[in-house]
Design brief:
255 residues, alpha/beta, Rossmann fold, N-(1-d-carboxylethyl)-l-norvaline Dehydrogenase, domain 2
């Protein structure tokens, strides 16, 4: 059976993931801006966030949350953390029971300090929740460069079914049942990346950067395990992989 996906969030990563999904299944993306919606539908572009990229022509866009999520078999959330709850609450009345909800967002809600999957559990109790995370720089992936990611959910059967939705071509998707660890890897690496960026700004060398990344990974692992994650998770794509990309790429927003 072919799954139908709805994706909320027309930024660079949300648009990239929607274009990847369109290779495997029908998908409709929601964006706030009418010009962005029109450009995706007519020209298969999102020049505001991905100026040099061409999107999958099967990708459809709308500025109606109801149209994006109604009847979907899986909902993907590409909304920044501080607006995540508000948008999900607007979508909640249109989502069928038990539809899985996958977060693309790496962050915590400011007021509650909750991870995005915890926010999903608050707004949509009973829905299977998961994250897609890893060293995923949107502009490289939409350009067709090889990359790998992790989809994490506690239910191994559901996560393997959804793996096929995202996996395609040079974008390889692995599965993991350590939801807490994978999500924390995407959150905590930003702190280390800011420290690395500060060092770079002060003219620190490669030795300093390497020390910060290595010792930072050790701290992330200890904290992540203390919060319920598994240590091996932080040695993989969701931990070390994401940390390296964020700390070394000029495309990273947190470096």
């Amino acid at each position: 059976m072919t799954l139908k996906a709805g994706l909320l969030g027309g930024g660079s990563w949300g648009t990239t993931v929607a274009s990847l999904i369109a290779r495997n299944a029908p998908v409709r993306i929601w964006a706030r801006c009418e010009d962005t919606v029109r450009e995706i539908n007519k020209h298969h572009r999102n020049s505001k966030y991905l100026p040099d990229a061409w999107l999958n022509p099967r990708l459809k866009a709308t500025n109606s949350i109801r149209k994006a999520v109604k009847g979907c078999d899986v909902l993907v959330m590409g909304i920044p953390s501080q607006h995540f709850r508000d948008v999900l609450e607007q979508a909640a009345e249109h989502i069928r029971p038990w539809v899985p909800v996958i977060s693309l967002t790496k962050g915590l809600e400011l007021e509650t300090q909750q991870r995005m999957t915890e926010v999903i559990n608050d707004v949509l109790p009973g829905h299977p929740v998961g994250v897609l995370t890893g060293p995923n720089l949107a502009r490289e992936i939409i350009a067709g460069q090889a990359a790998a990611s992790v989809i994490a959910m506690e239910d191994e059967i559901i996560v393997r079914a959804l793996q096929k939705l995202f996996h395609s071509g040079l974008f390889r998707v692995y599965t993991n049942t350590d939801l807490t660890g994978c999500e924390l890897g995407g959150v905590l690496k930003n702190i280390i990346a800011i420290a690395v960026g500060m060092g770079d700004g002060q003219g620190a060398g490669d030795n300093t950067r390497s020390a910060l990344i290595t010792r930072g990974l050790s701290e992330i692992t200890r904290l992540g395990v203390g919060m319920g994650g598994r240590p091996e998770t932080f040695a993989g794509l969701a931990g070390m992989g994401d940390l390296i990309a964020t700390c070394t790429s000029p495309q990273s927003r947190n470096r």
